[in-house]
């Protein structure tokens, strides 16, 4: 059978809720052209089959394959969010549906998903404690939820827990310090912002968010030369960022007074 014949047969099986037959057809079609953009739709369809069969892990794998082939398509993120929600990985599900929402802001279905997940996460966050987190990633995700909700003091505690739980060589450690620095920035504790950004930059000297946050902290302390140095370094890494250009201009004006 041709690719198109397999695709159509798979669609018919899906409509008839014969998910195993649909998976078989989609798999054979994907094998004919696994890296093509048209395969993205088949990965999405196969993910829906797995989801309906209660196999969220396989649904997630296919959703990620769909996104890899067609990153600007809504369906991949929707399938990913649905799979993650089934796995009770609610923070990640929220991120996936947020990506989907950016691609189709008017979708009521996605909006309903987002509202449901926000409600679930709010309830979880009210009960969560840093000590209850068993992995650095779990602590980070709860910290992100707290930060998004404007609860910067609690977010700070969860980022601290993420740092504490990070194994040696964890590539995310610089991000945890930068995230905690963002909390200190919101509470205008500029010396602590600088301390955490220093830590992040010791781990990753190209961490542009740490450079930007440290520059803003130096501005808050009116240490204009240090702020300008950080903005210039950020500009050398990522030329043309509007926030960097504006920061450079502010610092130069301050130094001319």
Automatic annotation (TrEMBL):
<dbReference type="GO" id="GO:0051879">
    <property type="term" value="F:Hsp90 protein binding"/>
</dbReference>
<dbReference type="InterPro" id="IPR019734">
    <property type="entry name" value="TPR_rpt"/>
</dbReference>
<keyword id="KW-0963">Cytoplasm</keyword>
<keyword id="KW-0802">TPR repeat</keyword>
<dbReference type="InterPro" id="IPR058209">
    <property type="entry name" value="TPR_BSK1_C"/>
</dbReference>
<feature type="repeat" description="TPR">
    <location>
        <begin position="74"/>
        <end position="107"/>
    </location>
</feature>
<keyword id="KW-0677">Repeat</keyword>
<protein>
    <recommendedName>
        <fullName>Serine/threonine-protein kinase BSK1-like TPR repeats domain-containing protein</fullName>
    </recommendedName>
</protein>
<dbReference type="InterPro" id="IPR011990">
    <property type="entry name" value="TPR-like_helical_dom_sf"/>
</dbReference>
<feature type="domain" description="Serine/threonine-protein kinase BSK1-like TPR repeats">
    <location>
        <begin position="6"/>
        <end position="78"/>
    </location>
</feature>
<feature type="repeat" description="TPR">
    <location>
        <begin position="3"/>
        <end position="36"/>
    </location>
</feature>
<dbReference type="GO" id="GO:0005737">
    <property type="term" value="C:cytoplasm"/>
</dbReference>
<feature type="repeat" description="TPR">
    <location>
        <begin position="136"/>
        <end position="169"/>
    </location>
</feature>
<dbReference type="Pfam" id="PF13181">
    <property type="entry name" value="TPR_8"/>
</dbReference>
<dbReference type="Pfam" id="PF25575">
    <property type="entry name" value="TPR_BSK1_C"/>
</dbReference>
């Amino acid at each position: 059978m041709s690719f198109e014949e397999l695709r159509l047969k798979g669609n018919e099986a899906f409509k008839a809720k014969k998910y195993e037959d649909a998976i078989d057809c989609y798999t054979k079609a994907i094998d004919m052209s696994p890296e093509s953009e048209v395969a993205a739709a088949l990965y999405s369809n196969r993910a829906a089959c797995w989801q309906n069969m209660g196999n969220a892990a396989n649904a997630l794998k296919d959703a990620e394959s769909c996104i890899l082939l067609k990153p600007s398509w809504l369906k991949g993120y929707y399938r990913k969010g649905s799979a993650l929600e089934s796995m009770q990985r609610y923070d990640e599900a929220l991120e996936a549906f947020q990506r989907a929402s950016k691609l189709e802001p008017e979708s009521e279905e996605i909006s309903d998903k987002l509202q449901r997940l926000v409600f679930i996460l709010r309830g979880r966050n009210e009960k969560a404690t840093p000590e209850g987190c068993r992995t650095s990633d779990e602590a980070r995700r709860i910290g992100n939820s707290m930060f998004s909700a404007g609860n910067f003091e609690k977010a700070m505690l969860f980022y601290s827990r993420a740092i504490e739980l990070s194994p040696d060589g964890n590539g995310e450690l610089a991000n945890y310090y930068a995230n905690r620095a963002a909390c200190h920035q919101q509470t205008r504790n500029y010396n602590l912002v600088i301390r955490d950004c220093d830590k992040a930059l010791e781990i990753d000297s190209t961490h542009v968010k740490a450079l930007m946050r440290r520059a803003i902290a130096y501005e808050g302390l009116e240490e204009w030369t240090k702020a300008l140095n950080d903005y210039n370094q950020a500009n050398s890494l990522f030329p043309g960022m509007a926030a960097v250009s504006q920061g450079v201009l502010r610092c130069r004006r301050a130094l001319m007074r």
